Structure formats: C-alpha cells, structure tokens
Amino acid sequence: MVVMDMSNRECRNIKLVISYDGHNYEGWQRQKRTKNTIQGTLEVTLSNILKENIHVIGAGRTDSGAHALKQVANFKTTNFSIPPQKFKDILNNCLPDNIRIVSSEEVNFSFHSCFSALYRKYIYLIHNFKDIDSDTIFPFISRYSMVSKENYDVKKLNEIVKSFVGIHDFKNISSKREYKTTVREIKFARVFKYKNFIVFSVKSNGFMYNMMRGIVSCTLEAYKKDDPSMVKKYLNGELRNKPTLVPPNGLYLHRVYY
After folding, report:
1. What is the pTM of this model?
2. Which residues are the active-site residues?
3. Mean pLDDT over residues 43-58, rounded?
4. Per-residue DSSP letters for 207-224?
C-alpha cells in the first residue's frame, strides 16, 4: 500500500506514462527556438485544459527524432476536480496522435520523474536488410529503425557490448554537455535478434546526451574492425576520432525504473 504524502494540498502531483513517435519532433526538451517538442506540446495542452501554467518534468530527454515506449513524466496542478485516472482520456482526446498517454495517476508530492528514477532502459533497433527476400525496403522502416545490409553475428555483438557493463566514465563517447559527473553504471547491455531486427538493450542509472547512440556506434565500429578492445580504447579516449553516431530514428526510451 502506497501512503500518499499529504503535506501540500494546495496542489496535486500527477504522474504520466507516455508513448510517442518522435520522428516529427525536435526531441523531448522544451526549446526557445521551437515549440515542436514533446515536453512543449504536453505543457501547452495541459495548460489549456487546466487554465494554469503547467511545467512537465520528464524522466529522460530523448533526442530529436527518437521515440519512447514508456516515458515517465509528472506535473503539479491546483486543479482537484479532475480524477487522476481521467487525465489519460482527456489528454488523448487533445494531443496529436503521435503522442499517447498510457496511464495517469496521482503520486506522492515528493515524486520527481527524473530524480526519483533508479534506472532507465533504452533500446536501439537495426533493421537487418540481409534477411529480406526483396530489394525493397518499406518506407516506414527507416522512420523507426536504422537500416543495414550487414549480416550481423549477434553472438559477437554481445561479446563486444558487454564490455560496457559496470561503472565507466562516458565523457569520451557522449556529446559534451555540463554534468556534475560523467560516470555512469551500466547494469546490463545485450543484443538480440527479433524477426528482422537486431535489438540493442541497455539499462543504466543514467544516460547522458547521445550516450546510448554512442554505445551502439562504438559496438558496431569494434565489430566492423573485429577488435572488441576498441570499446575500452573509446572509453579511455585513446582513439582520436569517435565513430559516426547511428541515426536517432532507431532509439527508444523503453522503460524507467523506480
């Protein structure tokens, strides 16, 4: 049984689980130069519904063009007339079809979707063109995955990507931004095949900007060169040039753990 923190009854804390197609958006985070972000769209929609300025907090800042299966967000509102579970239906009636609310509920006032999170899991999809008996790639495939003709050996990919498991400094394979620390712990990293897709799955206590794409890119480069030791060399900054980042369209925020 969850005991609700009733210390502030001037407003409520509402948690949302969100799924979205990020193809046409400039990422999750609100930006000054554009209104076309997931966070911005949610804030405008909620502010219009509730007739107050709403600030939405997300568990993860997905890249421009990246997607989410179960992003978690929360917002605080002085509105007490709408039952928490009704926010799901109300928002789904108002939001664009490429943003869907999976669930809505009231949570402890202290809950923070980002800072309360213990781990996040991202997946990355590669459509394996070699398994298709046609020269035609369906046009929507490249919208939701990276397309490759490489006949990947999943066992070898797993041997490489497991080098990321543990505590490492990821500053050399992530985009440079201001962080209190660039050290992260990878709880697990694996690659598996699902139908015509190669799936990278990584769970960590935190992801920096472009970190997941950097992990996939380094793994593919080490695979191409048949040199698993390249992972440690990338992490340690021993290699001057970073590998070209895989495109964002294959990236999904899969789940957030609390």
Report:
1. 0.91
2. 63
3. 98
4. --TTHHHHHHHHHHHHHH
